[in-house]
Design goal:
Elements (H helix, E strand, L loop, with lengths): L5 E5 L3 H11 L4 E5 L2 H10 L4 E5 L1 E2 L2 E2 H8 L7 E6 L4 H9 L4 E4 L4 H32 L12 H10 L6 E4 L6 H10 L8 E5 L5 H9 E2 L11 E2 L1 H4 L4 E5 L6 H13 L1 E2 L8 E2 L3 E6 L3 H6 L5 H7 L2 E4 L10 H16 L5 E2 L1 H9 L5 H15 L4 E2 L22 E2 L22 E2 L17 H15 L4 H8 L3 H10 L8
Parallel strand pairs: 1-2, 1-3, 3-6, 6-7, 8-15, 8-16, 9-12, 12-15, 17-18
Antiparallel strand pairs: 4-5, 10-11, 13-14, 19-20
Amino acid sequence: MLPETTVLIVDDEKHTRDGLRLSFEDDFDVYVAANSAEAMHVLKNESVDVMVTDLRLGGEDGMELIDKVLKLSKAPICILMTAYGSVDIAVEAMKRGAYDYVSKPLNIDELELVIKRAVRSRAVESEVVALKQQVEERYGLERIVGDSAAMQPVFDTVRQVAPTRASVLIEGESGTGKELVAHALHNLSGRPKSKLVIVHCAALSEQLLESELFGHERGAFTGASERRIGRFEEADGGTLFLDEIGEIDSATQVKLLRALGERTIERLGSNKSIKVDVRVIAATNKDLGELVEEGKFRDDLFFRLNVVKITMPPLRQRREDIVLLANAFLKEFAEENGKPIRELTADAMHRLVEFDWPGNVRQLRTAIEHGVVMSNAAKIALRHLPGFLTVGDEYGNAPGIGTVRPVRSRSGVGETDQTPGMISPVFCAPGNALPVSSDGRLNLDLAQVEQSYIREALHRTGGNRTEAAQLLGISRRTLQRKLKEMGEEEEEV
C-alpha cells in the first residue's frame, strides 16, 4: 500500500466507477465522479494525487478535463482510460500532460501498477526539488552570512546579476568568501541544473592550466596518451569559475580572451574549433587594474572579465558580522563534533571582534573550529582559541618584541580573565634594566609603561599604526583608542 495516496476515478458508467473503487480502496483513498463538474468539485475540496479519467464522459471529453485539471495550482497526476486506444490517442494524451494511458477493457493489475509508478515518479521529483533547495541553502545567498552595511552591495549585485549571462569579476583578499559568491551566482542563475566547474588557476603550471581549461588531443605533448576534454567543454551550458585569475600566463590569457569573445575553444594539438556556451566568473585577490598597468595582464581580457565587478570587503571592515559568523561556525562545528557547546564567553567574543583577521572569514572559521575541539565545557573561553588570539605562549610571549610577562591592570594591558577585552603584551627590550625598589618590588607606573611601549612600537614601525598594533599584539582599534587617551590623535602615517 502507498500511504497517503488519494485517487479520483472519473467515469460516466456507474458499474465501472464502483468496480474500480472496490478494487483500489484497500490500497488508496478513492473518490469517484461521474462527470467533469463532479470531478472539479472533488479536486477543489480534496487533495488528490492521481486522477484516472475515461476518454468519453457522456457528452464530455476526458481530454478537456485533463486540460482543466492541469491548470490547477496543485494538479494531480492524470491517467487516461479509453476503449479507443491507439498510438495517436496516447501521443495526444502525453502532449496534453497526461502521465500515461490504459486501454479498456481494463486490466486492474495493470492500472494499479501505472498508478503506483506515477506516485513514485512524483515522489522522486519532490526529492529533486528538496535537494535543489538544500543546495541553494548551502551555496546560495543564505550561506553568505552577513548583515553589515559593507555586505549589502554584495547581496544586491548578486541578485541583480545572477540571472544574466554577464561575466563577473570577484575581487577581495584571500578568505573573504569569493567562491561562495560564485556558487550563489550560479545557483541563482538560469543555469542551476547545469554544472558549476571550478578551476584554481594558481595551483597549475602554465602547460597544465592550458590543458585543464581547453583539453588536449592524444599526442599533443609528452604524456598525453589519450584525448581529454577541458573545463570549458565540461562546463558547457553552465558556469566556469576561474579562481585566482591574476596568476594565468600571457599565452593562456590570449586563448581565454578568444574563448570569451568567440565562444569557441580549441583543444591542444587540434585546430578544430568547438562551440561552448559557458558563463565565466573569475576571482582574484590581486588588483587586476594594477596588473594591467604593469603589463602583467591583458587589458582586453580584463575588460571582458570585468563586465560586473563584486568587491568582497575584508572582515576587519565588517566587524558587525563577526558575532553572526562566529555563532554560525560554532553551531556547525559543535554539531559536527557532537559537542554540547552553545556559545562563546564574553571575553572570547570580544577578542574575536577586536582582532583584525588577516586571513578573513576563513581564518575566523578555523579559529572557531579550534575552539570547539579544545573546549570540554558548554562555552568556548578565550583560552580555547588559537595562540595568535591569546598572544603567543601562556605568558604572552610574541616573536620579535622581547620578553613579555602578564600584568594585571585596569588600563587594559595584560588583562585578566575577569576583565573583558584582550591581552596586550607589556614588553621590554632584551638587556634593558627595570627600576627596582629597595625591597625588590618593581617601581613602575603601569600607565606610563604602557604609553612608553606604544611610543616605542610606533617608533619601530615608522609611525605605521597597523604594524605597531600587530607588534603590540592588540587590534588597531584598541591602539587608536589608547592613543586618543594619550592625547595623540595626529594624522596617520
